[in-house]
């Protein structure tokens, strides 16, 4: 089965991160991508700009895509503000599909990409909603300091499950040296520590969070169970970090 995945994300024209990275990951996983830009961005070494999409256009693009066929999964990347969030949510009402929510509010260089608050993200929770925060985002969502150990990350995953997310993946790529590298998966009332090896990455290999969430959405859309889908998505990102290709 070829999953058709809706990507709601910011357009970063070089494709290092954002919507074009999402499209590459979905296609590499054998899916069809429906790419709806929630914002235009420019992210250079000295240049930075974000212009949110017109909510009416977002509604029209998602509606038009649904007229052509079913959506099997939705990946939420950058949502610049409440009006884009409301437009997308209203248009997806009644859709029976997995959602993967990547709560990215800042670029890895620290630039602001969204005005959403934790409460906006927590309102997206549901049994078929996966949230994929990194450590900083997990702390931000819960209103507490960022997890600094694997145990803290497990607690954060449990707390986010309790807030109603069916699946939580806390990405531990920035755990302190000595903690090793581990992602924590929370689902069905338990947490699973998924160890990994720290890979050196050239600075242009960005958008790992985008790729992880998109590959995960493609797998879930195909009908892969959450745990196997997370494993496949992690392998996708490891391969991307090694090779620079999806
Ligand atoms: C449009 C957009 N979406 C997501 C990211 C996060 O990616 P990264 O963490 O690599 O900066 C980004 N920089 N820009």
Automatic annotation (TrEMBL):
It comes from the Bacteria. Keywords: Kinase, Transferase. One of its GO terms (cellular component) is cytosol. Pfam families: Phos_pyr_kin. The keyword Kinase applies. This is Phosphomethylpyrimidine kinase. It comes from Corallococcus sicarius. Residues 13-243 form the Pyridoxamine kinase/Phosphomethylpyrimidine kinase domain.
């Amino acid at each position: 089965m070829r999953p058709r995945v809706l990507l709601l994300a910011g357009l970063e024209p070089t494709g290092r991160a954002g919507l074009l990275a999402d499209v590459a990951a979905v296609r590499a996983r054998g899916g069809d991508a429906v790419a709806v830009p929630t914002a235009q961005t420019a992210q250079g070494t000295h240049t930075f700009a974000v212009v949110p999409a017109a909510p009416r256009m977002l509604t029209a693009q998602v509606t038009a895509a649904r007229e052509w066929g079913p959506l099997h999964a939705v990946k939420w990347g950058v949502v610049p503000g409440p009006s884009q969030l409301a437009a997308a949510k209203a248009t997806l009402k009644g859709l029976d599909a997995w959602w993967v929510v990547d709560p990215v509010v800042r670029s890895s260089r620290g630039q602001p990409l969204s005005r959403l608050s934790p409460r906006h993200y927590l309102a997206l929770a549901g049994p078929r909603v996966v949230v994929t925060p990194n450590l900083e985002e997990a702390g931000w969502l819960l209103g507490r300091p960022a997890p600094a150990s694997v145990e803290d990350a497990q607690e954060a995953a449990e707390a986010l499950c309790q807030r109603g997310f069916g699946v939580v993946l806390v990405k531990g790529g920035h755990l302190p040296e000595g903690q090793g590298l581990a992602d924590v998966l929370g689902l069905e009332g338990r947490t699973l520590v998924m160890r990994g090896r720290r890979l050196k990455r050239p600075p242009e290999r960005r958008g790992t969070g985008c790729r992880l969430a998109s590959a995960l959405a493609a797998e879930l859309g195909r009908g892969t169970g959450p745990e196997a889908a997370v494993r496949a998505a992690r392998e996708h990102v490891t391969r991307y970090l090694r090779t620079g290709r999806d």
